[in-house]
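fwd from M.: "can u put these together and see what the complex looks like"

so here's what she sent:
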Amino acid sequence: MNKENRRIIFILTALCICFAVLIGYMSYFQVFKSENIKANSYNKRLWINEESILRGSIMDRNGNILAYSEEKDGTMQRYYKYGNLYSHIIGYSYREYGKSGLELAYNNQLLNINENSAIDEIINIVAPKTIGNNLELTIDHGIQERARNLLKGKKGSVVAMNPKTGEIYAMVSLPDFNVNSLREDWGTISEDNNSPLLNRATQGLYTPGSVFKVITTAAIMNTPNIETEYECSGSTTINGYNFRDYQNKAHGNLGLSEALIESCNTYFTEKSIAVGEDILRNTAADFMFNSSIPFDLPVKNSSYPKGNLGKTDLAASAIGQGKVLTTPLNMAMVASSIANNGEMVKPILVKNVVSTSGKIIKANRTETLSVAVDSLQANSIKEMMIGVVQKGTGTNASIKNVQVAGKTGTAENPSGKSHAWFIGFAPANDPKIAIAVILEEEGSTGGASAAPIARDLIIYGLNNIKF
Amino acid sequence: MFNKSVSTKSPRNLLFLFEILSLFLLLVNQWGNIDKTVYYTWIGLILIVYISNFILNKISSGDNYIFLIVTMLMSIGIIMIYRIDPTLGMKQLLWLSVGIAVFYFTYFIIKYIRGWDNWAPLYIGASYILFLMTFLLGTRKYGAINWINIGGYSFQPSEITKLLLIFIVASYYNKPDMFKKYRFSDYILMGIVYSFIALLFLQKDLGTALIFYGIFLVIQFIYEEKRKLILYNIGLFAAGGSLGYVIFDHVKVRVQTWIDPWTYIDNKGYQITQSLFAIAEGGFFGSGLGLGHPEFIPLAYTDFIFSAICEEMGIFAGIGIIMLFMILVYRGFKIALSQNDKFFRILAIGVSLLFGIQSIIILGGVLKVLPLTGITLPFVSYGGSSILSSFIALGILQVASEDLSYGEEVKSE
């Protein structure tokens, strides 16, 4: 073959390879990328297809319907039965504003869209789907409503969950908004400085303050040969920076247990130096700091500062100040792990996805995320937390006939008004409910303002939830 | 010269069947508000395609498959365009008829007039005149100045210049000695082609510039004895491309939206993302004719016709179209390999390259494999000048597929 023909064939081969690459890429695109691309909210077809399917209902653990759809004059109407109450959990689904919450996370299940294979596609052409699946939540409508009422008029969040199974009973974030009148209120809602669209329970990052001492306590227990006795004079200076106790109160001679019960700042700042930054950071990591918590809704990662900390920063971290940030959900899980012998379980919000015929299509099962502390340590921390409520800073959370374990927190933050925290669980000997309460920029101590809310909710929960 | 023992009847009948089936689908889809034009279009399309294929079999001794492939592509195109907008579909059918007439016209002209390889200066002059006309009379359409309006009809001069380029390059390499008397003779052709490309850049017609470059580079690769010129060519392209990226905002925008269209989904990336939505939504089998939403895709009947087809007829139909182009290119190269007349051999390569490169650029563009450039998919997209120039090119290829040794004899006398 001459040179010319060889070159012609070379070019022909190159062109054919180009065509083959296009064919290959198209197949690759269809198999691996199309699902994600189709789900983009800018895809107008999404809405057209969706509007012909009756969106599934969402109900709480007792079968109360919280959101449902109805066909009206040929279009699908979505109704949110409780306006504000589930604005951050269920969220909304509006053509103009997109989707949020479970409406977004479980969109395909609610619409029964499942186009993973060519066969599904054919089935869809032959018999188009018209009714979506329902969601059964772990939420208890009663405690959810109660939690919102207790929080009313404040900014903040409450998370109540089962420490053993991870089921979320209540998750409230205030301020919230009315999902039903989103169209009318959108302007005000999206411009409000208090960010009502933010789900504070999972996405609000707060300085934990003294509730973080539960983790520091675990870190002290993890430190071999540490001297646990300390003489508290009400203030101490570490590396030139002065740490004080609340109202400069001198607690006198303390062990670890008394230090937690009295929430002694100077004790934990001093001991953090002996613990060292590695142990404290690793213990925080065991409680899911700096790692993502798998959940049905998007969760911001709690953060514990990385890198070489100075002694001052380390001491500040030990009392939950400085650069430590956490979400209310994470703190509810911290309380849960102490209640659950040290095992931190995955939080669950959607119990089951159920088809219209009642078949369970997808179920969330209890999973252990992390063993935060061993069961012996968990038990001693539990004893200390019982002390907090019996005779320490958390007495406002105590309940007659039920032993409550807890920890208060009063977190200083840039706003100047401190956050009030309470985390805890009850009954202490057989924990059924774990709770985290935060009142944002409340300006009072956790013991004074957050503990009573936790107390009321625990009473309500123990009496009313079908566990 | 091609083996006539292979019957062209059965693919012709398959094409007939395809048209009947798909038009039947359209009919079902528009049931309830059918007007007579549907029937006219239906009958018109089938008759035109069937009869023109039939006639070609009788008059041409060359490769009859290329015309069959092209009419298949056009049928898919017309059905899709008709589904998007019946008025445009009717017009496209009209263009198809004109295109086929032009094809036969070109076929006879090219075949019976001798001396095409002697008129290089004419082609060069005509090209510059066309460019000049574009700048003087041109109107801006979708960001590029490449349309001119004459008496209510608009056309794209660059469609004709593409063909002239092929003639220029073919005449040059057919008789390289013709230019040898000038100084720097090696660089004359390169200079001309690069001036074309520069003019296209100024018109913001990046897609056509790429086609020009591709055709020139490949023919140079095959026929240029001075191999270093090819290296210069590639180097110049790299330098020019980088310079274009720095100087021209429209080049930058194309590259940006190619790398990440999702960030600019509201404006610059809108077209390409809508195209990807459509292709993704179609899946393997498509949503079905009339059941998709090609109206969401901008320019669904021209540049993005492929995305619209993929949405409603599925990835498999898309793969079919790509394969049709592949076979068309393959047969074009086969024609070139068996043609004895060097000028027509280069013409055949040029035309095949035109079809091949143009389809690869626009297919790659709508699939986000390549940066998006606004050019048409040959024979499938809506558009008069695109169809006419493609049919002229096909006519040339048809002549090239025949045994032209008679002409050789005349020359050797």
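replying to her w this: Residues 3-38 of chain A form the longest helix (36 residues).
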